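C-alpha cells please, single chain.
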Amino acid sequence: MAKTFACREIGMNCGFKARANSEDELMSKIAAHAKQAHGMATIDAATMAKVKAAIKEA
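Here you go.
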C-alpha cells in the first residue's frame, strides 16, 4: 500500500504533497523537499516525529 505525506499536515504553509510505495522512499522525497524548499539541511527529531505521525496509507 502506498504512503502519502503533506506539509500542511504538520502545520507548514506549503502545498507539498508526496506519495511513494514505501516509507523509506517517501522519507527520501520529504528530506529532499525539506532541504530545497525549507532550507533544512537535516530534519530535527521533533519535526521528524511530526512527519512520521502525518504519514498516511493511501
